[in-house]
Amino acid sequence: MDLMVSTSSAQEGFCLIQQFHRECKRGNKLDVSGRTTRSISSKVPLWSRKRNRLVLVSAASKVESSGLNGRAQKFESLSSVHSNSNGNGHFSSVNSSFVLEDVESNNHLRQLVRTGELEEGFKFLENMVYHGNVPDIIPCTTLIRGFCRMGKTRKAAKILEVLEGSGAVPDVITYNVMISGYCKAGEINNALSVLDRMSVSPDVVTYNTILRSLCDSGKLKQAMEVLDRMLQRDCYPDVITYTILIEATCRDSGVGQAMKLLDEMRDRGCTPDVVTYNVLVNDIVTYNTMLTALCKDGKVEDAVEILNQLSSKGCSPVLITYNTVIDGLAKAGKTGKAIKLLDEMRAKDLKPDTITYSSLVGGLSREGKVDEAIKFFHEFERMGVRPNAVTFNSIMLGLCKTRQTDRAIDFLVYMINRGCKPTETSYTILIEGLAYEGMAKEALELLNELCNKGLMKRSSAEQVAGKM
């Protein structure tokens, strides 16, 4: 509050001019001492002066704590009151009336706006400004929004004009409401005109509103020019900005150009979200490609969200769609979520295949849940799904990592009996498993024997031996 009632000489001069301006608007004459010629008693009773001071300080405190915009003008009025005091902290009743008129007028304006009396509010605002009162921008912004919703953008623009000429300073929210109103009414040129004359810096919401309107109107080239202007003013695009432009570019120039914009987005440190990816694709093939790329980049949660939205996009997920996301989750150590997707695809009458189960078995084995992996392995065998070498290798690796190499060897035998030919990877897993359990001598003997029988290349054997 001390800051609000500063008595600096600079403020005294400013507030005297402000008082003169208001008195002239009221039709009063002001002499050089700053006193009006109206008949006002110079000897205000002490109790009245104290009451006036209490009212003024309370009003200022209420405005300060409300966090509302446009309150700088009230502070100036309060400073005017203080700077014209007699030096003992007593306020002149003339200046008190100015501040009270501002407070009371704005309270009445708020009440009109609150009750939806927009036309009355507009008339009252004009009357306020005519009599020299400075309006609060909050109810004025609400008036602008109300008229815009009614399609009366001309009247909303008049309010902004009155506000700008009143001494109040509209903030970016006020301008954004006006720009949004113009855009929704299809008056994009008027919106751009407001952007050009804004007295405050536009923010990303300002630009996004205009970009959306331009793109929806098929004016992509003009939208890209606005983007350049945005960057020149050090206002950085967000994910919404790029999503708007990427969607429009897809319609206008195809996915290829849109992907370039996606790369630019990433280069600027802006991370695409699910909505961004969705605007890039329009069929299940493209979705599968996108899901594969997301999983490869480790963005499996985004992939899951896109998968969940497919039905609402008119695209039914197929087996490869689920396999892609299940594999991504399994490799990310999220087999619990992968198993839920398995249940979901079964509910949709999609039959899991070798790739589905291999992904799950591999994920469980990597997480040290080997017994659960073996359980899944036998389950899909019972369902008639034939395991491949990758599936067997995953289980053997899990067993070796938990120092169960003997069981891994049994699994190798089972693998051969099932007609699945072991790969060099199969033998490498077992040899490294033996070495891991402290049986390096036995591991080397097995390695030589495998090379002699032509089951492993000598070069591969040397690489394995070098790690032991």
Automatic annotation (TrEMBL):
Pfam family, one: PPR_2
Presence of the UniProt keyword Repeat in the record: yes
InterPro entries noted in UniProt: PPR_rpt (IPR002885), TPR-like_helical_dom_sf (IPR011990)
GO MF term list: mRNA binding
Lineage of producing organism: Eukaryota, Viridiplantae, Streptophyta, Embryophyta, Tracheophyta
Protein known as: Pentatricopeptide repeat-containing protein
Keywords in alphabetical order: Repeat
NCBIfam families per UniProt: PPR
PROSITE patterns documented for this protein: PPR
PPR repeat start and end residues: 136-170, 171-201, 203-237, 238-272, 283-317, 318-352, 353-387, 388-422, 423-457
Range of residues in the leader sequence: none
Family of this protein: Belongs to the PPR family. P subfamily.
Regions annotated as coiled coil: none
Domain of life: Eukaryota
